[in-house]
Specification:
280 residues; binds ligand C2E; EAL domain-containing protein
Amino acid sequence: TAKSQGRNRIQLFSKEINIQNAKKIQLETQLQLAIERDEFVLHYQPVYQSNSNEIYGAEVLLRWNSQEFGLVSPMNFIPLAEETGLIVPIGEWVLRQACQQKKRWSDAGYSTMKIFINLSSRQLNHPNFISVLENILEETGCAPEELSLEVTESMMIKDIKYSATILEQLIELGINVSLDDFGTGHSSLSTLKLLPVQTLKIDKSFIDDISIDYKNSYIVKAIIEMAHSLSLHVVAEGVETAEQLSILNDLSVDYIQGFHLSKPITLEEIETLLELSCSR
Ligand code: C2E
Ligand code: MG
Ligand code: MG
Ligand code: MG
């Protein structure tokens, strides 16, 4: 009968939820062990100067190669790490590793190259964040001017005044702040008004159909013009085609990041690329 079918469906549904929960708990257990098991690795996606082949910098992207699950996408483990608070030690690990690497690159002559590092909400809002960061800078000898820390609008809406004070402290340290995924938050313009940032990263969703949708290309044009009149730099994210690249060059975007130029690559791969293409 319809009634019993309904009940079966509910049972099936709650069974699925239980499976999902069990999976989540397994994932969380493994995530807790990942640092000590040395399962994390950093990949790097080059960010290019527009209108040239010069590498301006690289975004650090975390990869988890789990003993239990194999390669897990950040889309699957970053939200869980955020929810459980594990992102705090993980984020600290990322910062330390990336700063160590940046120092090695600077020593090898690539000092102008910028390194972009993603922050998370729990990390930015943690009371020790600034002091942890200062320690890492001192420990590694990484120059703050070579760092750009990426924040998103959604990370900061809970307490925008507090976020502003943290970003001001970052800027005082000499660190560059980038607003990641720009345009996807709830109030991008008021975020810009209230928060001190120096770089905008235009979200991939605006870049995707820039070549077929005039509306989107006008929006991107307006973002770039507004950013430039506020003395901000602009990165276009998720550039996948030559056509998108050429439109963005015409619109005078400053920097380009995307699969069309390079996917995120391993340390060895980016070092080869740097040797080939970077002026020291
Ligand atoms: P995000 O910061 O916006 O990073 C850009 C994402 O877009 C990366 O995905 C990158 O691989 C991908 N991407 C870049 N260019 C293209 C393109 O042309 N086409 C397509 N389809 N994708 C492109 P990934 O590495 O999977 O990272 C996803 C998200 O996970 C990141 O988005 C970021 O929010 C988060 N994440 C990654 N590493 C870290 C980290 O160390 N800490 C924190 N807190 N979050 C991180
Ligand atoms: Mg990012
Ligand atoms: Mg982004
Ligand atoms: Mg994103």
